[in-house]
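Give me the 3D structure for Histidinol-phosphatase.
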Amino acid sequence: MEEAKEEILDILSITKRKGLSLDFNTAGLYKKYCLETYPSEWIVKEALNLGIPLIFGSDAHAMDQVGRSYDLYEKAMD
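Predicted structure for Histidinol-phosphatase (78 residues):
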């Protein structure tokens, strides 16, 4: 797990250096075997600490899914 974490931190560093953003997707919250956002909370925190902008996504496939759990995105941005 530690090796994977280091890889992710390297990817975040490259993301920051290239001036890219990161998708904050809430679809995983509604998937039986995931139940969390994509990416995971610790990655979101690391990205924000680096100043990487987050872009909200709900991966909607129906009208009632558009913007689902947007409040979690807003909370992460505080």
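The CA atoms of residues 72 and 78 lie 10 Å apart. Let me know if you want a second pass.
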